[in-house]
Amino acid sequence: MNIINLKKEITASKIKSAEKVKLREIEEETPNSFVAFADEGQHSFDVKITLDKSDNVIENNCECETKTKGYCGHEIALMLHILQSKTTVAKKKTVKIKPPTEIEILLQNISEVELKDWLKLYLKQNKETFLDLKLYFSNDKKEYSIDEVQTLIVDAITSVIGKRKKASAQENKKIAELLQKSLDPVLEFSKNNTLDRNGIAFYKAIHQLLFANYYNLLDSSTKYNKIIVDFLEKSTIYFNTNEEAKSWKEKMEKYCNAIFNNKINYMDFNIVKSMYSNATRNQKEIIAKYIVEKIEKLSSTKQFNTDIKMFFLEMFLENQCWESVIGFFEIEIYENKYNVLFLNLLKTTDPQLAADYCKKVIKHNYYDYYNEPYYVILQEIIEENGSKEELAKFKMFLLENGRKNYTDYAFIKENIKDEKVFSDFRKKLIKTFNFYYGEEEHQEVFLKILADEKDYKTMISRISQYTPASVILKYCDELFAFNKEKLIVELKNKLSKDHNEIASEKSELQLLEWMFSKYDKSYFASLKRMKFSNKKNEIYIVNKISLL
């Protein structure tokens, strides 16, 4: 929808309702991408509208999740605001003396003492408003102690939920908004002071305070967690940007060293990880080189969990400095993302060990689809370092475990030198395929193998209601030439029992057309008396026979 046509495409009642929605903190995050808060009673919702260059709405989202077609009232309200801002023509302003508002009149008639007394009572009963007022009139504060920051965090939480230990999603949203207001001036203070005061202990202490309260507020909302992550990101950006090179290196090494202590402090790990992700190219190389030096002095990396190992490996790969330390890592069962990255590095330095690790993981994975990346790595190792016969044996393993690839079968047939080994494999494979009725890819490989061997008798006998018509069609002419009488019996039997209505509209009908083009009317007389599982096929066949 083009926003210019908003009032034409949205009903008047919806427009009227949307005009009553109160919007605040409207921002244009990026060109033509607008966000705002929409207030409705005691609730507030995040709203977002994004336009393309022609003012067409390409994205709309509202936290209210109204289950109706089209746009919710909050989205329409934001679109009305955008439309007004785009169509308003600047007019010459005339100075008018506005009449006093109802609020102004009321305040004029209340004495300062009366107003203060009423405000004290109101703020005592409305702690959120009190905290808002407190933050608004204390923005001139330039320094903060840890105790003061702790008070800010606790006040933001207790003003919403009091002494309760858990918060709802809506309450978490309010807490997050208050914390953002509370911590913005603290973050500004940290820009020049936090990371220079006892190392980065000041920031670390704040981060720990946020985390300590996070577990009391945990629910489906991510807003609180986002504040923690943002505070971490912004603080380490300041650190990387403003710290002098020598001081930066000393403090970086201090927190890297903490990761290698006997009892790992994961707060220090988060700091190092954020420090690295927000570093310059040169800073990243320095961090990676220092971590490599630390690992080279270790006798074991078992103290590290998978998250830390994954961070190390990704860092080493980015900085091309992993070869000297790759031997300190090993696979972690069920950690596929980490394993695949590690094995892709390991296969370049120790392909045999990488292959052994792949086999170990494959053995432990319960679901075979998790093994696909390990099969790929194994095949690459064998193709690079092994013989064609070794590769053929590996492809045998894949086909025996459900892989559907005739090209692999042909490769195996050509490269397995022991005829008995191949014969046993073929028998086992054919037996395996017998269990995959109706799966087109399996049936296609199965019939292709038989066709390659010109075993048309078996091919005809294997046709059933489960054999996809699309596969049969590929061999119809060859089977017809071999034994058209036996073929028509099996095809009629298949069609009478086939219940797949979707297939009947595609390949099943193509198969019927082929049959009518090859056989005369006498072959179809019995079909009139047969009961069909698929009524569409039955109607089609009866009508077709009547025209013959």
Give a structural overview:
The protein has helices at residues 6-9, 12-18, 73-87, 102-108, 112-125, 127-136, 146-161, 169-192, 201-217, 223-242, 245-259, 266-277, 281-296, 306-319, 336-349, 351-364, 372-385, 388-400, 406-415, 419-433, 440-452, 456-461, 469-472, 476-497, 501-504, 507-518, 535-547; strands spanning 22-30, 33-40, 43-51, 57-62. By secondary structure, it is mainly α. The relative contact order is 0.03.
Short characterization:
This protein has 27 helices and four strands.
Strand-helix topology:
Elements: H1 6-9, H2 12-18, E1 22-30, E2 33-40, E3 43-51, E4 57-62, H3 73-87, H4 102-108, H5 112-125, H6 127-136, H7 146-161, H8 169-192, H9 201-217, H10 223-242, H11 245-259, H12 266-277, H13 281-296, H14 306-319, H15 336-349, H16 351-364, H17 372-385, H18 388-400, H19 406-415, H20 419-433, H21 440-452, H22 456-461, H23 469-472, H24 476-497, H25 501-504, H26 507-518, H27 535-547
Antiparallel strand pairs: 1-2, 2-3, 3-4
